[in-house]
Amino acid sequence: MILPPDFSEFPVLESTRLRLRRPIEADAADILLFRSDPEVMQYIPRPLATSISDVMVFLNIMEESLAKNERINWAIEWKETGTVVGMISLVKILPEHARAEVGYSLSKAWFRRGICSEALEAVANYCFNTLLCHSLEAIIDAENEASAGLLRHFGFRQEAYFLEDFFYDRVFRNSIHFGLLKREWLEKSSVSPSKL
């Protein structure tokens, strides 16, 4: 068991090339690029954004969840330009189990540059060293091979494979649940980012 998180002071996370920070209204155009892209969103069971207004609704929902300390969403900013290239989140934080769930998405133009790897490392460090979680979970669409590769790279284990466990866009989909314990992360903490 851990204390419930307190996000009243938003935690900004830094890595070599990235700044993970609070998403703001000025990021809406950058966010629209990937939230409206069918290729980026094909494994994320959420409606495609079609306008800046859709992104603003998304930002407002994120702010409401943050205010309740239910979840936290970071904009992944490329430091060199200030461009928001993706998002990474702790979408389910369970203090009673010292466990959190991570999710992420990335703009297509930034694929295969090691960005998700770098962002995941920063969030895992925060999760285990600041929130003091015992475990970190990731749930992905079973067809999302790139995401599965990223998670395995960081030492996540496949914990379960569910057949047709969620229904989205008129199709039953399969999901894979991955998990990582704090002690496993500490053993892998010297892992260098790949080009995932």
Explained architecture:
The protein has 196 residues and is of the alpha+beta class. It contains six helices and eight strands; from the N terminus they run ββαααβββαβαββα. It has an eight-stranded mixed β-sheet with strand order 1-2-3-4-5-6-8-7, sandwiched between helices. Helix 1 (28-35) crosses helix 3 (52-67).
Element-level helix/strand string: EEHHHEEEHEHEEH
**Within the largest sheet, what's the order of strands?**
1-2-3-4-5-6-8-7
Low-confidence stretches: 191-196
**What portion of the residues fall into strands of 2 or more residues?**
25-35%
Report mean pLDDT, rounded to a whole number.
93
- The count of β-strands is 8
Distance between the termini: 33 Å
Helix content: 25-40%
Structural class: alpha+beta
